[in-house]
Write a structure and sequence with these properties.
This protein is α/β, with parallel strands linked by helices. The protein has 2 domains: 153 residues, Rossmann fold; 136 residues, no CATH class. Helix content is 37%, strand content 18%. It has 11 helices and 10 strands. The strands form 2 sheets. Strands 2-3-1-4-5 form a 5-stranded parallel sheet, sandwiched between helices. A 5-stranded parallel sheet has the order 7-8-6-9-10. Helix 11 links the parallel strand 9 and strand 10. Helix 4 packs across helix 5. The radius of gyration is 20 Å and the shape is globular.
Length: 309
Amino acid sequence: MEPHNPSSQRVVLVTGPSGAGRSTAINTLEDLGFEAIDNIPLSLIPRLLDGATRLAQPLALGIDARNRDFSVEGLLELQAILSTQSEMQCELLYLDCLPDILSRRYSETRRRHPLAPDESPADGIAREMALLEDVRARSDILIDTSELTIHDLRSEIENWFSDATGQGMAISIHSFSYKRGLPQGLDMAFDCRFLRNPHWEPELRPFTGLDGQVSQYVAADKRYDAFVKHIMGLLGVVLPGCLEEGKAHFSIGFGCTGGKHRSVALTEAVAAALAKNSWRVSIRHRELERQGVRLAPKAAPETEREASE
């Protein structure tokens, strides 16, 4: 495990739709040295984390929408409270999966869906995913398990939470739209709105920063190279310092007006540069997620992605 500040309690809240792999994630975290508790009621978590019972080892808490006192508002409020406490290091891990894959898993196991015991599993899956939509959007780490075997998921969890690779800090880079505000939990945010906007080019507007013609257009701005150079210089100072302090996760955001072009292109470029320097990097394009653009679930050679196609 990566080193922890003795006065800091690391807490990972693990949730997601039923059948997406929460139990596998909890078991893997337990194998990595976390104190793991699954299906814990939200009302018990504050008492577990109070000063009198604070644990020395990191804590993984599985949170299930089936629990009698579960509410989206309660979970997000708990995440917000823990994230503001200096003695806490809180991360919300969301296990996601495509609805048709979840339906197939329920069909193979012949289980009833907990939110639709007298209906088809598809009804329960749709109900649960709608319920958890805001939780998914607020997650710090999102892993799509649609194309992952149990062994693949274990490896993904180990990659995020183990220092077996010698790199003890995971970096996530998010693109976002300023119209929706900054994503919660960012350690650092960069505004890309000063760069020229592909939105105003009719032939580029339908595409995203993932497309070569858009990323090339953004990179052709005369201010682009200096911007990226300064960002990489700053991160070259900040990231090693955070690693030395035992920080487990560092989150960077790139924002533009619509979250579709400039911020996406910058996120991709900086993630690739950091990965080239041997940092462990994942990518999340929040506005593209909202628009239904789902990227490949398997990790690219240089980076890991937090959305799937």
